[in-house]
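With this grant's support, we have settled on a layout for protein records. A representative record follows, to show the layout.
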Amino acid sequence: MKRKLEVLAPAGDLETLRTAVIAGADAVYFGGEAFGARAYAANFSFNDAEKGISFAHSRGARTYLTVNTLLKSLEIEKKVYSYLKDYYNAGIDAVLVQDIGLMQLIRAYFPELHLHISTQANVTSEYGALFFKNLGASRVVLARELSLKEIKQIHDTVDIELECFAHGALCVSYSGQCLMSSMIGGRSGNRGRCAQPCRKCYELLDSDKKKRNLPGKYPISMKDLCTIEDVQALYDAGASSLKIEGRMKSKEYVASVVSAYRMAADQVMAGEKTYDPGSLKSAVLGAGTRGGSTDGYLRRHNGSDMISLVDSSFSSDGPTSILTSENKVRAAAHFTARVGEKLSITISDGEKETTAQGPVVEKAKKPRDVASEVKDKIVKTGDERIEITDVSVDADADSFIPMSLVKSLRREAVQSFLGGITVLRDEPLPFEPFRSNKHDMITGQPMLVTCMTQEQLRTVAGQLSANDIIGIDYDLYSLMDVDALKQIDQNKYLCLPEIFRSDRMPEIDEMIFDGFIISSYDEIEYVHEKYPSIPCIYDYRLYSWSDRSRAELLSFGAEYISASVELNEKELAHLDNSSSFICVYGRTPVMYMANCSHKNSVGCDKRREVLYLKDERKADFPVMNLCSSCTNVVYNSLPTSLLPFTGQISDMGFAGWRFDFTIENADEVSEVLNTFKRNISENGADDVSCHVTRGHFHRGVS
């Protein structure tokens, strides 16, 4: 059977959803009133969402709900189940998720609901796709940075739907891995509140703080993605869905872009070559772009021509024509509820008739007149194509009629009458909040210290005890002499690449290392397959904002995990931290980029250096190019130090202390470690001499 190619459209409100479906979208994704990664979009009230779901289904289109933020313990245990249950009963076709704890909850309580893994989970290989397939996902939204070759490798290896970004705004950072907005102003992208710092002006400075010449002031503002000329190539590579970005875009924009990709997808699936990609490209770009357009990473790993450089604003040629809706069908409905017989709703317009049946009606404990309530539920179809002009009710006074079942039957009857998608599901299982046993303070916690330079490594190796762990950066490992590494006596853990790419992973001499530090879901599956017996620590980029998420991560075999850097002291104190390291010193990575500032300014010479992005507030953000994994890492302008709060943190029951060294010299490394040891032994509150930030320890994110 030939694989279908879905055109997936964004919708920021009900009118845009209708426009997208009429324009030819196979599916529409939107956010509800909570937990979506576009907190500043209009988003949907539940009433509008119900109407939108029904409207889409009546035309054979699917609807996907974005629940792709990270959730705190109280949210995931007290709010999200009832939130999801309403959409589940309304017939939502799939839920888009990032949080690993929420994935577990959906599998446990909504097993019939399709689980789509958000691009924020950062799937970059067949290993990540297999990891989520094994967790019950039906689809993964791939990282935007993948090439056609990589997409095909995943498709050929793992039997799972692949959703690929096809059009719209591009983040310069791997999605889900950007903390820049969060660390600068407390607006976390992981909570849908990104302030888009990548669109701001920056000066690019070299290691001596001298300005690098660039033809513009926007060195990390990406052009918009446009793959209208690459639809055939994406289909051949294995894409199941073409995702159009833009839940904050106008209905005019959505109509223009969707109709163009609809035409291209239809002809690709039909094996025809009659459409003109050039004219379609002109049409979609006329709807608007930010700084121009690019085909992204489909055929290359990075490039300066992907960056807008001189302009980060969105502009368009103006409104385009909008398709209009069909005329309404007027019909009558008949509802029957006789004790001992099946519940039913029949819809008829005099020429066509359809009936939806439910379970056998049971006897109610107390008779009541439900006719008016039933009529109200049936009349409100939520679909613009049909108007129920009359409802007749034939019901026993003592019949037990759940109104949720009436709505479900009405939806099924309307969809059947209009020829749409019918979603029939069992009731979700009753929810039981996750319970975690809090642990008392742990004594003798080990230290985990990660290093990026040989100078740091030599300094650290002389100051740690036998129980402590040295984390050796993957890029450092690729530059060092293996024999020198073997001389280090402490526990040595290799920090696997910040961004995992299958074609950049050579064989690792595991005899050198006592364990791995893992940064992605791809790496969890990779290590399980390649190095099944080696211990692992999970980095804080494998997010665990709740006890449920923590337990799920530990179930994959982690020895330890790492506490989130976006939770505050109160939120951390309420978690079970018995298996978590907490970072008390380090420059937080705020972006991981495929695009290379070093290459864009002087060319690719495979030479690692530290550049700086100077913002309008004169803050300098170090940028390091890690050539072994072809990744750029942007670090916060100030290191985070929680050293004065070691006494308070000790009472939170953490498994150990973590220190991340990036651009520090030997003296600075020694100062940090000595300050920590002095505070621990003397119950002190000293800090390092350099300027620091407390990160989110006191403020957190909303």
About this structure: The chain has 22 helices and 32 strands.
